[in-house]
Amino acid sequence: MDIIEITGLKHCYPDGRTSLDRINLAIARGSFVVLAGANGAGKSTLLKHCNGLLTPLEGTVRVAGVSVLQDPLHARRLVGMVFQDADSQIVGETVYDDAAFGPENLNWPTARIKESVERALQLAGLAEMHHRSPHLLSGGEKRRLAIAGVLAMEPEVIVLDEPFANLDYDGVRQILAHIVALHASGTTIVVCVHDLEKVLAHAGRLIIMSEGRIVADGAPEKVVLEAESHGVRIPAAVRLGGALESWLR
Amino acid sequence: MAAIVFGFRLERTVLHALDARVKLAALVFVSMAGLHAGLPALGLAFFAALCLLALGRCSPLRCLLGMKWYLVLLGCVFVARTLTTPGDPMFDQPWLPATRQGVHAGLLAAGRLLVIALFGLLVTFTTRPSEIRAAVEWLLKPIPFIPHRQAATMIGLLVRFIPVILSQSAEQQEALRARSIENCKNPLRRITALCMPLLRRTCITADRLASAMEARCYGAERTIPCRPVTAREWSALLLVVGFCTLMYGIS
Predict the structure, then answer these.
(1) Is B214 found in the same domain as B185?
(2) Which of B21, B102, B151, B248 has minimal Cβ neighbours within 10 Å of its Cβ?
(3) Is the ipTM of this complex over 0.90?
(4) Are B74 and B123 part of one and the same domain?
(5) Contact at CB, A88 and B129, closer than 8 angstroms
(6) Contact status of B248 with chain A (Cβ, < 8 Å)
(7) Residue A23 resides in a domain
(8) What is residue B89's DSSP assignment?
(9) pTM for the whole thing?
(10) Which of A51, A43, A42 lies closest to A74 in space, CA to CA?
C-alpha cells in the first residue's frame, strides 16, 4: 500500500525555470527512502509538494489516497516535514511550547496535546529539558526538537530535508539513531540528502534526482554505483569495494 | 546578554505561576498610573519593579545592564527635555539653557518610560509567550473588527523573535569586527553594513518560519492554553489596583 503517490508532477520557479519535470513516484507505507541529488536538483521542492506547501503546475500528489491540492491540511497532518534550518522552524519560547505548536493548530483538546507532546519529547530524548529555551539548545538538540515538533502531530510519514547539515559526529549519530528508531516503530521515512555516507546503510530504497527529474530509483546497493554520474559522492566503503556501513556501529 | 534578559525563563516563583491575563492587566494599570504619576510615585514604582524582578529571580542589575541602550535613549530624552523646557535657568551660561522645570520634566518623562519598560520586562520574563498570546487573544476577543487570533500570534512571534534578532545582530557585529569595521570612520557606512544584512537575514528567517508554520497546520482555529482564574489571581489584581491607587494618591 502506497502512502504517497505522485503522478506527472511538474513545478516551475516564479522566474519560469522548471524545478520538477514529470515526476512519477510511489512511496510504500513503512518504507525508508533516501532522496539524493546535487544542490538544485529539486529534492526540497519535491518534499514541499508532499507536505502541501507547494501546489503542482501539472500532475497530482496524493497522500493516503487524498489529493494534496484538495485537502492540504490532511497532507500536513499525515506528512510531517523537518526543515533543513532548525532555527527558523522553532516557534515556541520553550521546548514544550514548540512541540505543542502543531497539536494546538490541529485544535486537539488540551489533555491530548499534553499527552502527545510528552510522548514526542520522550521519543526525541528531550523530556528532561521541556522548560528550556530552544534558543539555547545545541545544534543536535534543536534538530531533535524540530523532529519532536513533527512527531507530536502523530504523522504517518516524516520527511527530513538535509537532517545532518551542520552537525558534528555525535549530533549526526543522535539524529540518525532517532530516525532509525522511528522507522523501526513503523513510521515511513523520507530523507533528503546530498551526502549518502551517513544514512544510506539504513535505507531500503535510493532515489537520485538531477535537474528536476528522477534519474535512478531502486535498491541502494545497485543505484549507489551510478550516484557519482549525477553529482552525488559514492560512500567511501563502496568506493573501496566494501558494503555500505552504518554510522551507528 | 540582552538576548537572554529579554526572554521567558522558567522559575518556580509566585510571579511565574500567576495567570498571564492578570499580569497583562496589571501592566496596563501600572502604565496608566505611571503616566499620571509624579516623581515620588515613580520612585516608589521603580523600587517596586526592582523588588518584583528580584522576586521573579531576575537580577535587577542584570536587567539594567541588558537595557543599557534603552537607558542611553532615556538619557537623551532627559537631556532634550532639560534643555528645551522653558523656566528658571540653572546656569548663567547662555549656551547651556537647562532649566529647573526642564530637569523635572526630563526626570518625569524618562522615569515613566523606565518604569513601564521594567514592568513590561517583568511580564515577558515571567510569562510564557504562548500564555501571553492566549491572554492577548482572550482580551481582544470582545472587541469587534479586530482579528484577535492573528493579533495574538503576531505578538507571540514578536516576543519569540526578539532574542533571535538580537543574537543575529551580535553575530553580524562580530563578523564585521573580524573584517576590521572599526577602521571605517563613516558611521552611516557602518550602520548600513550592519543593518542591511541583518534585515535581509531577518526577512529570510521570517519566510522560512512562515513555511514551517504552514507545514505544521497553522490556521485560525487553534487550541488556546488558558487556565482558570483563581483566588490568587484576584488577590494579585486587588494588590495591583491598591498600588496604583497609592501612586495616584502621592502624585
Answers:
(1) yes
(2) B248
(3) no
(4) yes
(5) no
(6) no
(7) yes
(8) B
(9) 0.72
(10) A51
Same domain membership, residue B74 and residue B97: yes
Q: What is the pLDDT of residue B1?
A: 45
Residues of A in Cβ contact (< 8 Å) with B205? 87-88
Does A112 lie at the interface with B, CB-CB under 8 angstroms?
Answer: no
pLDDT at B160 over 90: no
Structurally, chain A folds into a number of domains equal to 1
Nearest-angstrom CA–CA distance, B248 and B34:
9
Interatomic CA distance for residues A108 and A141, integer angstroms: 26
**Residue contact B205–A87, C-beta within 8 A:** yes
* B91 shares its domain with B182: no
Domain extent for B195: 131-220
Instruction: Tell me the nearest-neighbour CA distance from A92 into chain B, angstroms.
Output: 7
Nearest of A166, A49, B40 to residue A175 by alpha carbon: A166
Q: Look at chain B and report how many structural domains it folds into.
A: 2
Q: Which of A108, A104, A112, A47 is nearest to A80 (CA)?
A: A47
B218 → closest Cβ in A94, A105, A113: A105
> Which CATH number covers residue A212?
3.40.50.300
| CA torsion through residues B173, B179, B185, B190, sign | negative
Residues B8 and B114 both lie in one domain:
yes
* Contact flag A105-B211 (C-beta cutoff 8 Å): no
Per-residue pLDDT of B193-203, as tens digits, reads 889 999 998 88
